[in-house]
């Protein structure tokens, strides 16, 4: 999920947008976790040669960690942590294969003696680096950090773990960019990406199950603490696969915006987006002031789509960052891309009726300007070959183009794009039980957003069917990635501490409400 519904990034978009939307709220996060400063003597009256102090280190199991700062992308914010590189074989079946280094970081508990279990955050995507979300994670898990360490491991192929970044081809390798879908261009962009990766990575070995073994190796090296898993979006798939293969290593699981194992990533994207949009737009038609101002936003959106299908054209708008006038091709693909980005958070979804209405009247600035801001925050996820390695190995062969999707806003372009890229991308192995539903008696808490456009609440309910010790909480008015909404951080804390999802008092979530729909750019009606 990158700008323009990036291929294979449908889940990462949500986390990345969410992190961006939280940055202002969490700018002062995690100060109490800063590593101890290295002491230095007062400067003598006469200059003398001073030997620099050794950097602060922390021994955790067999791993020596050094004090570090994790910088949040596209911001000046950083989070204090303890970092190390961890070597693993790229091809685990070949002892002579190249060694790659994984980046791991630990947010250290404030307790003198921390709890024996450790919380592991599993990032979304596929393609997002866990360490990029350090600020948000530190804020959401602050109650748990009082007694527990938090592990952030960049999954192989992301961030500081031998990232499969494809420079220059990212814009071409998208399912819905600023031009009409072209399968040939997508295949060519994927082939170019493979050339760039050839010197340092074999994409066949960057799958979920291989990464699950990486996580287990890291856990063992850290002293084998039991893990409390917190997965978001694609990270929920990683959590389920890890739990299936290493059940004895897991103490509890939180799945935020869950992806069922049985699902082929991409197959429901069009339906889920349409369902979320219709539910959001129904709020407008049910409010007299909104209906009077915008009529039926769903109808307006499809009328705009049909007009752009018949007459794609260049438009001009003022860039909200540079304030310069820029031109962009506006067609049905770019409209679908922009609308999809807006649907991921309650705040931007509340702007959709107003922005669509303005665009239908010829003013594209509100729609494309906001999309420019969102896409800028997501630029680090563009062109991630790790996305392709995961989806092409694990899902693409199961995807079929569904006729009923053709007339939706997203249409079949996502599935078509995945098939085009995966026709040339090398594929790793997929275990026979990979898509089998998860079954476990471990305590599991599932969180879902009422208006999630990519992992709707029915997904969480599907996962929970095989889990006798699980509970689903659907958050009213929320969309994708909900762990920071309202009192959810406190609920996660209570769940991890008590391990009893069925008796968890979640009544505080009743105070959550949808973001009021904007009638104009001053806000909603009083």
Strand content: 15-25%
Low-pLDDT stretches are 1-46, 170-179, 377-381
How large, in whole angstroms, is the Cα Rg? 23 Å
- What characteristic shape results from the CA principal axes? globular
Number of strands: 12
Sheet with most strands: strand arrangement? 1-2-3-4-6-5-7-8-11-12
Mean pLDDT: 86
Q: How far from one another are the termini?
A: 34 Å
Q: What is the share of helical residues? A: 25-40%
**Category from helices, strands and their pairing:** alpha/beta
Q: Tally the helices: what do you get? A: 17
Q: Please give the largest β-sheet.
A: 10 strands, mixed
Secondary-structure element series = HEEEEEHHEHHEHEHHHEEHHHHHHEHEH
Looking at this protein, list some descriptive labels.
single chain, about 525 residues, alpha/beta, 10-stranded mixed beta sheet, two-stranded antiparallel ribbon, 17 helices, 12 strands, disordered N terminus
Task: Write up what this structure looks like.
The structure is a single chain. This protein has 526 residues and is an alpha/beta fold. Helices cover 34% and strands 15% of the residues. It has helices at 10-22, 134-140, 142-145, 183-197, 208-221, 234-245, 269-286, 288-294, 297-310, 332-342, 346-349, 352-360, 365-377, 385-394, 413-422, 457-464, 488-498, and strands at 57-60, 63-71, 78-89, 99-107, 118-122, 150-153, 227-232, 250-256, 313-318, 325-330, 444-449, 470-475. Strands 1-2-3-4-6-5-7-8-11-12 form a ten-stranded mixed β-sheet, with helices on both faces. Strands 9-10 form a two-stranded antiparallel sheet. Helix 4 (183-197) packs across helix 15 (413-422) and helix 5 crosses helix 6. The chain starts with 9 loop residues before the first helix and ends in a 28-residue tail after the last helix. Residues 1-46, 170-179 and 377-381 have low confidence and may be disordered.
């Amino acid at each position: 999920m990158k700008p323009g519904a990036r291929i294979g990034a449908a889940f990462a978009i949500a986390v990345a947008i969410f992190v961006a939307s939280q940055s202002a709220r969490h700018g002062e996060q995690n100060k109490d976790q800063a590593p101890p400063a290295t002491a230095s003597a007062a400067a003598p009256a006469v200059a003398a040669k001073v030997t620099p102090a050794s950097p602060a280190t922390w021994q955790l199991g067999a791993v020596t960690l050094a004090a570090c700062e994790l910088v949040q992308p596209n911001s000046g914010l950083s989070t204090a942590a303890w970092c190390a590189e961890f070597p693993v074989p790229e091809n685990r079946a070949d002892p002579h294969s190249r060694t790659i280094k994984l980046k791991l970081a630990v947010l250290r508990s404030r307790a003198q003696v921390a709890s024996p279990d450790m919380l592991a955050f599993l990032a979304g995507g596929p393609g997002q680096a866990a360490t990029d979300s350090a600020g948000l994670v530190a804020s959401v898990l602050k109650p748990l950090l009082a007694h527990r360490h938090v592990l952030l491991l960049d999954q192989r192929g992301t961030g500081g773990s031998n990232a499969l970044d494809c420079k220059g081809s990212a814009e071409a390798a998208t399912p819905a960019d600023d031009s009409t879908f072209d399968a040939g261009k997508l295949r060519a962009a994927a082939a170019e990406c493979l050339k760039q990766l050839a010197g340092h990575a074999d994409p066949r070995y960057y799958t979920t199950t291989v990464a699950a073994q990486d996580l287990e190796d890291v856990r063992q090296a850290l002293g084998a603490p039991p893990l409390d898993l917190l997965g978001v979006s694609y990270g929920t798939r990683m959590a389920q696969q890890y739990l299936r293969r290493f059940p004895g290593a897991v103490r509890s699981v939180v799945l935020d915006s869950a992806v069922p194992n049985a699902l082929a990533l991409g197959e429901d994207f069009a339906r889920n987006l349409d369902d979320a949009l219709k539910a959001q737009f129904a709020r407008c038609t049910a409010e007299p002031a909104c209906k009077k101002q915008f009529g039926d936003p769903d109808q307006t959106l499809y009328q705009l789509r049909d007009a752009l299908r018949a007459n794609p054209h260049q438009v001009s708008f003022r860039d909200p960052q540079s304030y310069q006038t820029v031109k962009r091709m506006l067609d049905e693909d770019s409209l679908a891309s922009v609308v999809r980005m807006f649907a991921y958070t309650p705040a931007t979804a509340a702007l959709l009726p107003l922005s669509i209405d303005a665009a239908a009247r010829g003013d594209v600035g509100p729609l494309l300007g906001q999309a420019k801001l969102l896409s800028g925050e997501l630029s680090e996820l563009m062109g991630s070959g790790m996305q392709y390695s995961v989806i092409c190995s694990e899902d693409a062969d199961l995807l079929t183009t569904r006729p009923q999707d053709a007339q939706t806003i997203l249409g079949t372009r996502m599935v078509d794009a995945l098939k085009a890229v995966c026709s040339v991308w090398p594929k790793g192995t997929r275990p026979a039980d990979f898509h089998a539903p998860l079954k476990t008696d471990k305590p599991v808490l599932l969180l879902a957003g009422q208006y999630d456009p990519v992992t709707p609440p029915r997904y969480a309910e599907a996962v929970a069917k095989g889990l006798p010790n699980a509970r689903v909480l659907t958050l009213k008015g929320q969309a994708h990635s909900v762990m920071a909404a309202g009192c959810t951080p406190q609920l996660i804390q209570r769940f991890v501490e008590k391990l009893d999802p069925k008796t968890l008092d979640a009544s505080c979530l009743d105070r959550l409400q949808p973001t009021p729909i904007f009638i104009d750019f001053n806000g909603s009606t009083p």
